[in-house]
Amino acid sequence: MAMRSVNAEALPALEPLELERRQEVALRRRGLGSWARGAVVLDVVLLAAAAAMSQLAATRVGIVGVPSAWLVVYGGLAVFFLHVRGMYSWQLRLSMLESARKVIAATALAAMTLVSLRILLPGNVDNLAPQTLRLLAFSAVYLTAGRIALDWAQLKARRLREDARPTLVVGAGRIGSLTARRLLELPELGLEPVGFVDKEPMDEAALPLPVLGASWDLERLIEQHRIEHVVVTFSTAPNDVLLRQIKRCEELGVSVSLVPRLFEKVGGRLTIDYIGGLRCSRRGRHTRRAGSLPSSTSWTALSRARCS
Q1: Residues 172, 148: one domain?
Q2: 204: left (phi over 0), alpha (psi -120 to 50) or beta
């Protein structure tokens, strides 16, 4: 058997494991971006179709068409504003009405920017208003229809568990158990819980899923179960441990959701304030209507957070 020389350069023992881990993260990120890439391709195709129909309709009514270069600029602006509004990022809840609202807002912003550029830059601006309105109308209708179809297809895939992200729940207490049950009952959220991470679970027999390990097992569990999302609920682990876990999830390409403290009082009317470098959420004044009942605990407790 061949022996290595003592003076030979030593190779790190964990280098193959680290390389395998990086490949796993890259594969996970490519999988997560499949719907996003499909959405971009769909939007580009629909914008091209909308521009062609707008030009065809303009010639029929005797309006000069928009120059091709400006059509390309408009398409780029529309895709940019759609990206800014989060249309190409993963969403916990898919709402067709919300998608339609974002599409209309993005196309309107793109149209206003196009008008401003054409006025500021040299060129023919005759029939600018009808040209832009026609282009805006066609693109808004086409993109809205495409987005509704895409959301419907994604919702169908989620309900069939074909597009479900394997999910870990950090914290096996009452809130963690409630979170896991809601995820199991609502497959359209796109998260499929596989187990809990907690050193000291409250009542393991009453949990809907098994406890797979403690906080120090998080990285191993992510690799073993191909976890793509982590929900952090209330846990007995110290805050610095939870922060390290969230940071490590980000490094591994795993998205994170946080269930905030006092979530029973967390509503839609929140304002983010800063006290020095400390971020605080301020709840707006709530006026109860006559005969209305207090709102109960709802699924809005899951607020998606980006690690920093």
Answers
A1: no
A2: alpha
Q: Which of 116, 142, 159 is the last residue of a domain?
A: 159
| 102 dihedral zone (left: phi>0; alpha: psi -120 to 50; beta) | alpha
Distance from the first to the final alpha carbon of the chain:
50
| Total structural domains within the chain | 2
pLDDT digits (tens, 9 = 90+) for 129-156: 888 999 999 999 999 999 999 999 999 9
Q: How many CB atoms are closer than 10 A to CB 75?
A: 20
In a domain? residue 295 = no
For helices 239-251 and 218-225, angle between their N-to-C axes, nearest 10 degrees: 30
Alpha-carbon distance of 267 to 286, in angstroms, equals: 9
Tens-digit pLDDT profile for residues 51-91: 999 988 877 777 777 888 999 999 999 999 999 998 998 88
CATH number of the domain encompassing residue 183? 3.40.50.720
pLDDT above 70 coverage of the chain, percent: 74
26 in any annotated domain: no
pLDDT in tens, 108-135: 999 999 999 999 988 788 888 888 999 9
Last residue in a domain, options 133, 159, 185? 159
